[in-house]
Records
---
Amino acid sequence: MDRNICFIIFAIFVAYTARDLFFKSYQPSSQADAIDSVKKEIPSMSFRQQMPTIKILYCYSCGYQRAFDEYRKMIMDQFPDLTVIGSNYNPSFLKSKLAQLISITKMIVIALLVANVNPFAYFGLQTPQFWEWMRQHKLYACMMTFFLSNTLESQLMSSGAFEIFYNDVPIWSKLTTGRIPSANELIDMIDNQHKFFQTETFSGGGSGDHLTSHTITGRTL
């Protein structure tokens, strides 16, 4: 009975882990990747024809999805001509791979427990006491392995980011400032950039590279 329960739990763990590993869509992992991603999503065209775009990269595991939804609605209410897109901001390559390694290790450990396999015996090693305890308490060991590994994965994947770009140009970075901008700050930043964008568009003044006069801390130089 205990073995059947462990097998069911293992099947559920495998399903969720496989979904995370193989069906998770690609997300940019840095500001440089984010800017490249925006450029790929926006068709190549002249600056006059290009519609202004706000891109927000946020930490989904940090619970910033709701903040993004609220800010997106607020921006679109204030600036109907803006396009607002958002996606998850992944951590560094090293952290992502380490999280995947922990996830795979979790599956292997649970599989060994369910199958009642002692990996140490295959290598002629003495079985550690913790493994004997896990074999004797399979249900608790499986649950403990699952939740502990998930906690570590969550810590590694939580970037804490809330990065805002206006036409590829970073105008706010929570990674730099340590906080999400207030509603008034965000509206003011976008308004300043938007006015400059419209001025450049109507005057025919170049490709919009001068938008970089904004710092990512949200203060206009």
---
Amino acid sequence: MNLRRNAFEITVFPFVRFKLKPIFPISCLSHCHRELDMFNNDALKYVLPIIPVRQTEKPGVNSQVEVDLSSSDKKAVGKERDACIKLFDDFYKHLVRKENSVDDKLSTSAGCEKYVKDLVDSIDEYTSSLANIVSKTPKFASLQYFYWSSPLTDKQEMAFDDYRYELLGVYYNVGAILMNIAQYLLCVRVTVGTLSFLEKDAYRALIKASAYFHFCANIADNMKEHEIGVAQVSIPLDVEKEMAIFLESLALAQAQEIGVSKAFSADPKENTETTARLSHQLFLMYEAVCTNARTINTRSKAFVDISTLSILKRDIFHALAYQHAASHLFNKNPGSGLSLLNQGLERATIVEDYLTKSQKGKLKLPFDAERFVGLCTKNIRNNTERLNKINSLVHRAKPDSTKAPLPPPQPLAIRPDISLSFRLEG
């Protein structure tokens, strides 16, 4: 797939700056750090994508399969499914702004925690019941035809007689909802003074989302290895697995963004290399997201927007990785810091090019990202100017002839080591 450069979304981490006055004590230079005014508004700090949720219909009955199962058992599992679908439908209405019942539930940290717990509990109850029935009555695995829409891939107007396809749809939606909760908290609900605890809630949601997409990838593998059902219709399992891997990596990359932001807030002068190392890892994670995106062949506009945005994030975070590393190393070794700064200039030029093309109408940025690109561009420009001015007034160092490397990457956002609570029958 040839990803078009027509989208952009990025979290910008502010670099410090000072303003030189006509008379300015040189001894104070190392202590004069001021955050850029444009980053004081927490509402501008994150711009995250909305992940489409999948729609479903009432399952059909496979007339070629006979199952000895009581009507009460069928009714019970059907009721549990209805409860899950209602949660999905309510969140879909939240996404398209048709009602605000979900908004109310996410209005506090406690409310958000309860909403996520209720969602997960409902899903666990239904999927465990479904798997338990299949374990006791194997033919039930192909008794029903399940339909799920595919908003991120080419439309599949088909239903499949495999209960594992139902699990794929359900777990995908849980992962998507958790990612969208993070987007809502950091991009919609955030106000001045609320960002810190919202970041914690969003981080937890993204980490949990990665686990559900990992479930999807494992289920797709299981379906490929063990076919069931009587319908002679093949499920595009490779696409299902590739999409799950892509979204898992994206959720973790977004969680790593939060980690970089919080690390910088804790150490704005970058006295330690924590922010620089986390930032290097963030670039590598988005590099992996882009690699995963290239495995998926689809014409879905939603997917193209999200995946192209990931390309742009990769480029931006590459530039920012050099900025963070240069800021930290400059404090210890100005020559090495300037070496890193110069190495990042090419990446910074790419960022500037995005903004210029967008402003001239040559590049369309989805998710209303132009302002954010502008903030990032100005941020990089100001930090570069800051380091060069300090050097010209204090150190007068030259960039080291040997290129200084980026500090070792430091992973923070890692998928939890959990597995399905039941054995897949296939």
---
Amino acid sequence: MNDGEWRTATAEDAALLAELASEVSGSDFTAEQASAFLKTWRVEIAPDSAVAVLPPASGHSRGHGAWWQRHGSAQFDDVVRRMVRLALTHGVETLQISLPAEESGPLGFDRAYPLWTMVHDGTTWPQQQSELPPPLRISRWSEVQPSEFQTAYEQAYQDQRVVEPHTAATWEQLASSNDFATDLAALATTPDGRVAGFVLGFHQDGGGVELGPIGTVPSWRGRGVSSALLASVLMRCRELHSGPLTLTVDGESPTGAQHLYLRYGFLVDKQLVTYQCRVPAG
């Protein structure tokens, strides 16, 4: 594929990107979802392919990549090279991509960790609300300062391998979208307003909810914070008849988060592998 065939995607390309992603993935992507995607990811498109990079936040170097390619439209290696080049132009030093577990990673990418997508079984529900350790209380998104959430988010994910490099401004933008599940978001806060843990979610088509991010700051780990918050959110989802409920997790999470989700009725739907590479400078 020639360089001249590629161009930077704009908001006007949302319908085209949605159509391409739907065809390649077999899922139903809407133009609205593509529009939201284009606000945070940097996307280049060609007649039958698209590559995307989520740049790192200020002070970070790890970004995430994705691509969609119609069958037989271009050489796979050419598309990957284009994605790496796009990552370089946006300050990415380490690029991560995720592929089905049965597929091999592209040349130059090393295996990093397993990634699971999970779906709730629809029958395993918390029987009662778990208590947060004192003096924490459950707060809603509207009660929390975005900067306090951002601080907790960065602390909770500083030792994690699956992290979306969003800034406080980006989270505020996401929270103002129609997809953000304001009615479900649960955060554990201290009396002075600091965030100790969080479970957020985003509405999907057909009444589904994608849960995440989910995390607890290191100083509060091991005390049942995430468990209590997740129980609260699941009970609310049951009341609202939301479903399916899905999430994505590091299959070998250092905090053992995957075991919590299994205990709460989430089943492994797809097993992926995340690969990463150092983006060559120049």
---
Amino acid sequence: MRHEADKAVVTLAGEIDIGTAPRLTAAVEGALESNPVRVELDMSGVTFCDSQGLGTLVVLNRAATRSRSVLVLAELTDFLDRLLHVTGLHQAFTIQNDDAADADGTGDAATS
């Protein structure tokens, strides 16, 4: 996780599933403790996400909202983009891709 002026960036890699969801939850909850305006999840390295992973993202989105922060899913892979559209969850999240990041000046590489 990396902290910047008003945001925390968490870089994800591999699968988001029942085995990894607790670590993701801990990372985002830890990021929220510093009261950032936004928590960005760099999703560019995510290769798989099951229903447990989707549920975890929804819960974390709510947690961020309760903390007066915004959870941002950044750099979605094609797989994740399709998954969010098929499940109808695409509209539930704030999503940022390279083009949006470059346009608002926040598009820098994320590190763990």
